[in-house]
């Protein structure tokens, strides 16, 4: 279980901010689990429960923190803080 991603991304395939967040995580070689709120049972409610709002993407990190609609720079800074960036 050590190799399982500690980052979860809740969003939708049509969402531009979601596409950008996934692209940033991929750019920095950060493993993550994608949760499509339109096809995964309970994913939309889980995202709302985490963030308290209906905005996507919701990105959760290994330290228990989360970001809503983060920029690539915010994702990079968080990965650096967590020591999870792999360039």
Folded structure, characterized:
The chain is built from three helices and four strands; from the N terminus they run βαβαββα. With 87 residues, the protein is an alpha+beta fold. It has a domain at 36-86. Strands 2-1-3-4 form a four-stranded mixed beta sheet, with helices on both faces. β3 and β4 form a beta hairpin. The two termini are 23 Å apart. The model has no long low-confidence stretch (mean pLDDT 93).
Counted by DSSP, the helix tally is: 3
**What would the principal axes of the Cα set say about the shape?**
globular
Span from first to last CA?
Answer: 23 Å
**Fraction of residues in helices?**
25-40%
pLDDT average, as an integer? 93
- Oligomeric organization of the protein chains: single chain
Radius of gyration: 12 Å
Portion in strands: 15-25%
Strand order of the largest sheet: 2-1-3-4
Structural class: alpha+beta
Largest sheet: 4 strands, mixed
Low-confidence stretches: none
Protein name: Glutaredoxin
Pfam families: Glutaredoxin
Comma- or semicolon-separated keywords:
alpha+beta; GlrX_actino; Glutaredoxin; single chain; 4 strands; Thioredoxin-like_sf
Quick structural summary:
By secondary structure, the chain is an alpha+beta fold. 37% of the residues lie in helices and 16% in strands. It has a domain of 51 residues.
Write the layout of secondary structure elements.
Blueprint: E1 8-11, H1 16-27, E2 33-36, H2 43-51, E3 58-60, E4 66-68, H3 72-82
Parallel strand pairs: 1-2
Antiparallel strand pairs: 1-3, 3-4
Helix pairs in contact: 1-3
């Amino acid at each position: 279980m050590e190799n399982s991603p500690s980052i979860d991304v809740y969003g939708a395939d049509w969402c531009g901010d979601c596409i950008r967040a996934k692209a940033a995580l991929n750019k920095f070689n950060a493993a993550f689990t994608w949760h499509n709120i339109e096809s995964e049972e309970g994913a939309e409610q889980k995202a709302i429960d985490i963030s308290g709002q209906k905005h996507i993407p919701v990105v959760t990190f290994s330290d228990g923190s989360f970001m809503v609609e983060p920029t690539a720079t915010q994702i990079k800074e968080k990965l650096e803080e967590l020591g999870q960036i792999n360039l």
